[in-house]
Specification:
Helices cover about 30% and strands about 15% of the residues. By secondary structure, the chain is an alpha/beta fold. The chain folds into 2 domains: about 5-90, no CATH class; about 105-190, Formyltetrahydrofolate synthetase, domain 3, CATH 3.10.410.10. A 4-stranded mixed sheet has the order 3-5-6-4. The chain has a two-stranded parallel ribbon with strand order 1-2. Strand 5 and strand 6 (about 185-190) form a beta hairpin. Helix 1 runs parallel beside helix 2 (about 50-65). The radius of gyration is 21 Å and the shape is globular.
Length: about 220
């Protein structure tokens, strides 16, 4: 998909598209490595995956010294990831984690560091509502919390149409919420929606109680 293939065509083998999409994977690898954390590329094999695509990705990982495991969690459940689990368990236990920001830093600094370093954005823009909430949190002394970004999973940016490893974009913060119990400040970006994540036709539409007291549609 990040190589330009339509979602409806992803089951059709296309090594060229796979390789064009690799910069997206590469950015995720860079992000994990930036925390001084070990990582592994895990290929979760689907029945529709073509051998040529797996071989191409395996070769790229080996050529670039990225650890890789071919798993079959989709087809075999936990049994399909035993070798991967053993490898992860064998990794050094020393904690060399390097945080991206210090929690005491100003909230806008923490947000900017995430957007620039993790997403590759040029900067951050705020809606008036988000700016007002930023000021309110500072006045209340609640801006010294960790930041949990709410963003589309379909792009490194906040725009789900920007695929691959986009550049030249800014992250738009449309709203900022305080999750006080969890200890997070949640900036909402782009067109993101928060939970509950209901489908287009909620299951509740098919639930009912019949005249004899039987409940139907509950699973």
């Amino acid at each position: 998909m990040h190589g330009g293939k339509d979602k409806s065509e992803l089951s059709t083998p296309d090594v060229d598209a796979l390789l064009r999409g690799i910069p997206n994977l590469e950015k995720h690898i860079e992000n994990i490595a930036s925390y001084n954390l070990p990582y592994v590329v895990a290929i979760n094999k689907f029945a529709s995956d073509d051998t040529s695509e797996i071989e191409a990705l395996t070769k790229w990982c080996k050529d670039n010294n990225h650890p890789l495991f071919l798993c079959n969690v989709h087809g075999q459940g936990g049994e399909g990831a035993i070798d991967l689990a053993k490898y992860v368990y064998s990794l050094p236990k020393e904690n060399n984690y390097k945080p991206l920001y210090e929690v005491e830093e100003p909230l806008e600094v923490k947000i900017e560091k995430i957007c620039k370093n993790i997403y590759g954005a040029d900067g951050v823009t705020y809606s008036d509502e988000a700016l007002n909430e930023l000021v309110r949190l500072k006045k209340q002394g609640r801006d010294n919390l960790l930041v949990c970004m709410a963003k589309t999973q379909n792009s490194i940016s906040d725009n789900d149409t920007l695929l691959g490893r986009p550049s030249g974009f800014k992250i738009n913060i449309k709203e900022i919420r305080l999750s006080n119990g969890a200890g997070f400040i949640v900036p909402l970006t782009g067109k993101i929606l928060t939970m509950p994540g209901l489908p287009k036709v909620p299951a509740a539409n098919n639930m009912d109680i019949l005249e004899d007291g039987t409940i139907k549609g509950v699973f």
